[in-house]
User: Fold Thioredoxin reductase from Vescimonas coprocola.
Amino acid sequence: MDNKIYDVVILGGGPAGLAAGLYAGRSRLSVLILEKGIDGGQIAVTHDIENYPGQSKVDGMTGQELVAPMTEQCKKFGCERVSDTITACDFSGPVKKFVGSKGEYLGKTVIVCTGAMTRSIGCKNEAKYVGKGISYCAVCDANFFEDFEIYVVGGNGIAAEESLYLAGYARKVTMIHKGPALTVSPMLKERLDAEPKIHVLCNEEVEDVGGDELLSEIVLKNTKTGEETVLHADEEDGFFGLFGFTGKKTTGMFDGVLDMEGGYIKTDECMRTNIPGVFAAGDVRVTPLRQVVTACADGAIAAMQCYKYISAQK
Assistant:
């Protein structure tokens, strides 16, 4: 890359990043979107979306179908895109810098849109059943498992909150945790204990999954004894759900640089971080709801704040 200084450098090409690119591009700012994977980020591999307002297919559409027009809009308004893995950042000066495997990228402002935790249960055959029983979003997919059994991987507060949400739909919810006890607050533990649909399996981890076309088999391995147990879906149901709420945070390079809370970036309502000219949008920030629609709104706000910030520097 040359030493071009962009008005806005956006890290992440998911809905938040694409919305930010659209709004910044339409404001006649020079924009660079950095994305190591495919356009759309995690939402691009989502099989069925029903809750994005105004979507062209009311009965559901894939993540790729949803983000493809967003990508084209960004191109229309001049956004550039580079595929690179970013390994470091420097926000100490008036020009912000990202360092990747292919070079350095400079911007007067930056918007961090790296999404929430990277999603993976970590078991064999996981990819085969994503969208066919395996999910990573309770709000997105709970209604597909109305009156079915659901298993939840994770023992932290996020897994507990999602289990409580899923209990409003499922016939039974079982939390699977590899540790000896859940790592949740006393208040959250009380809520779990008070919900008769929720059960907990500790010292267990998901080793493998299987089924014909839909997920109908889960192989558990005891973390103490190594003993394996096979769970089968009810014959009448034919399948069950497996939700994963474990993973690695996407904000490691910002530790000690940006103010964080629980692995997420703290911002104000204008998406501003603790460093002037550095913004965060979408699932990566501390927010009460992580959905495509909220990510897009965050991205739009962040882009317009970049415009205001740059205008004020002139």
